[in-house]
UniProtKB/TrEMBL annotation:
Residues covered by the Ketopantoate reductase C-terminal domain: 193-321
Listed GO biological process terms: pantothenate biosynthetic process
Record's keyword annotation contains Chaperone: no
Pfam families assigned: ApbA, ApbA_C
PANTHER family: 2-DEHYDROPANTOATE 2-REDUCTASE-RELATED, PROBABLE 2-DEHYDROPANTOATE 2-REDUCTASE
Stretches assigned to the Ketopantoate reductase N-terminal domain: 7-150
Organism: Aspergillus hiratsukae
Biological classification of the source: Eukaryota, Fungi, Dikarya, Ascomycota, Pezizomycotina
Enzyme nomenclature, EC number: 1.1.1.169
Protein name: 2-dehydropantoate 2-reductase
């Protein structure tokens, strides 16, 4: 038995809280960077209501408000970012996590975040560190500070290196984290090229996330609002993603992949079990949402490659308007 892996979790909301539990169950020492929920979690820990893990209360091994508060002599095996992705924000993500990485080229940085083209900015800032890109399927909500509702069994982390042809030690870091997440009771899969998984999730993220945030409907409920127009809007956006994926050389993101993912929501519509995507959850709680990482990066890449995206560009402009309105409201 070697030393216990030491993990720094940055941004421990609903997804981060469940990953915290899994990593502790796998024998890791976990430091949680809790920002908005720091006071509550420090006093009472996390309270989880879960089909998969049961109803449990648990605490991080260590808790801090920022990475700058972490002990200077601690070497982390992984800095795992489960905060939402806001490209161009100030201070940048790189600046926020930098104190844990100074002089630590062996520490792997895990971007367990939504969107596409989010890795390069971190890789440019930390060229020697392993960069691991993660795609998460984990339907969970933080209903109040430190209180997590996780009503489904789905718990999947798809992981791979950035870039795909990273050196062997970086590949080994990815493989080890996959093992830890599986040991902790979740499901994790290792990919040679994680961008295939990232783009496959983009089929869901670029369609359902902004549409639900704008309409204030769950995915299933939205499909029932204006048949067949609602269905055709979602399907049309998915096909725009398929077209872009083909143009930029991402395999496996085809009409069949889109059809499979749209069937999830059509089933929910029939059963009355619609889910609120993350952007809708954020809008309902007056939080900023990931419009740029998920939608903005996509439409800009499409224009770069001369791929027409009239539906997604329209949805992006409207979602960006809602984002800016929320941002103004938060200043007052």
């Amino acid at each position: 038995m070697g030393p216990k892996p030491h993990i720094l979790l940055f941004g421990v909301g609903s997804v981060g809280a469940i990953h915290l539990l899994q990593l502790q169950r796998a024998g890791c020492t976990v430091t949680a960077v809790c920002r908005s929920n720091y006071e509550f979690v420090k006093e009472k820990g996390f309270t989880l209501t879960s089909v998969r893990f049961g109803n449990v209360t648990y605490h991080p091994d260590h808790i801090v408000r920022s990475v700058a508060e972490c002990p200077k002599d601690t070497v982390y095996d992984y800095v795992m970012v489960t905060a939402k992705c806001f490209p161009g924000s100030k201070p940048s993500l790189a600046d926020l996590i930098r104190p844990a990485l100074i002089g630590r080229p062996e520490t792997a940085i895990v971007l367990a975040q939504n969107g596409i083209e989010i890795e390069k900015a971190i890789a440019d800032e930390f060229p020697e560190n392993p960069i691991l890109s993660g795609v998460i399927y984990l339907p969970t909500t933080q209903t109040s500070p430190g209180v997590i509702d996780y009503p489904e069994m789905l718990n999947l982390l798809e992981l791979g290196t950035y870039p795909a042809n990273a050196p062997a030690p970086h590949k080994a870091a990815a493989s080890k984290l996959v093992d830890l997440m599986n040991q902790g009771g979740g499901e994790a899969r290792l990919y040679d090229d994680i961008q295939i998984a990232r783009w496959t999730k983009l089929l869901i993220n670029t369609s359902w996330n902004p549409i639900c945030a704008l309409s204030l409907c769950s995915d299933g409920d939205f499909l029932l609002t204006s048949e067949p127009f609602a269905f055709e809007l979602v399907w049309g956006i998915m096909i725009e993603i398929v077209t872009l994926a083909k143009e930029v050389g991402i395999p496996g993101v085809d009409e069949e992949a889109a059809r499979v993912r749209l069937q999830i929501a059509t089933r929910r519509a029939k059963e009355g079990t619609g889910r609120d995507p993350s952007m809708l959850q954020d809008v309902k709680q007056a939080r900023l949402f990931e419009v740029e990482a998920i939608v903005g990066n996509t439409v800009r890449l499409a224009r770069k490659h001369a791929v027409s995206m009239p539906r997604l560009e329209t949805v992006y402009a409207l979602a960006k308007g809602r984002y800016e309105a929320l941002a103004r409201d938060r200043l007052h």
